[in-house]
Amino acid sequence: MEIPYTVELRRDTGLNNGKIGIWLFLASEVMLFGALFASYILIRTGMPSWPRGDTILNVPLATFNTLVLISSSVTMVMAWASLMRRRLGTFRIYMGATILLGFVFLVVKYFEYSHKFETGLFPSTNNFLALYFTLTGLHMLHVFGGMCVNAYLLGPGSKLWKTNPEWFTNRVENSGLFWHFVDLVWIFLFPTLYLL
Amino acid sequence: MTSDHAADIDKHVRVYLTVFAALLVLTVVTVAISRFHLPVHQAVTIALIVATIKGSLVACYFMHLISEKKLIYAVLALTAVFFIALLALPVVTVHDGFWVH
């Protein structure tokens, strides 16, 4: 059975179902991270003192990671633009770069986490670190999830291009929306945890 | 692909690269401001303003929210209401004095 409204737009909304679906999912993600940010505010305002992030965390590494994730957002949107121009080869280059940048982000986080554990800093050490590990850990899971979807679209998923290029382009756009959301969350996490 | 469509995509790409440059500059600004060690309230306000500008650029241009359909705006408006309520809860709790009791 053919799935309806994957390419053609619904007359009532002017959107295809995939676009509505991904935005509803992102709305639920906003609430998930919102709950954790609310916890951060609640715990921080309740503490008599709070450490500055840069006294515990590595700001240069996190700044580098911010630039990496912003760059990956650009390569992601360029991958979509390549499909809009009907250039699958260019899409592959940009999508590969997006996945690679996501991998670089995770490797840097691995070194950050390792250094913390080696110096005896764990989630149980204090409230600041509990929030740091929870927020960045959940964010890393999102980066990993986005990488898996992007890798599928770069690999086996790209077969769809031959039979239904519009549907494939929509899938890449929706995956891109998730990836940009992950970038957006980091844009707020970075100053909140590392700089304030 | 028509030449009009191609020109349209080229225009989009130029916008993406401009936004990219703006995001890089704003990231440097965020880190530079933190070096001044401002009082907490000022530091939080400035950091949130810069982060909001960066987030808006990503949402408006990379996520194409600047030219999206009404239903998406409606979904996001409803989400924003609940999100603000969620963030306001701790603040309300503290101001009512529940915090210490």
Topology at a glance:
The complex is a heterodimer of chains A (196) and B (101).
Chain A: H1 17-46, H2 59-84, H3 88-118, H4 127-154, H5 160-163, H6 165-195
Chain B: H1 3-34, H2 40-62, H3 70-95
Helix pairs in contact in B: 1-2
Descriptive key words:
heterodimer; A: 196 residues; mainly alpha; Four Helix Bundle (Hemerythrin (Met), subunit A); 77% helix; B: 101 residues; 2 domains; 3 helices; 80% helix; 0% strand
Question: Gist?
Answer:
With 196 residues, chain A is mainly alpha-helical.
What does this entry look like structurally?
The complex is a heterodimer of chains A (196) and B (101). Chain A is mainly α and 196 residues long. In chain A, helix 1 runs parallel beside helix 6, helix 3 (88-118) packs antiparallel against helix 4 (127-154) and helix 4 packs antiparallel against helix 6. The model of chain A has no long low-confidence stretch (mean pLDDT 95). Chain A has helices at residues 17-46, 59-84, 88-118, 127-154, 160-163, 165-195. Chain A has one domain (17-195): Four Helix Bundle (Hemerythrin (Met), subunit A). With 101 residues, chain B is an all-alpha fold. Chain B folds into two domains: 1-67; 68-101. In chain B, 80% of the residues lie in helices and 0% in strands. Chain B is built from three helices and no strands. The chains are: A mainly alpha (196), B mainly alpha (101). The interface between A and B is large, with 47 and 46 residues.
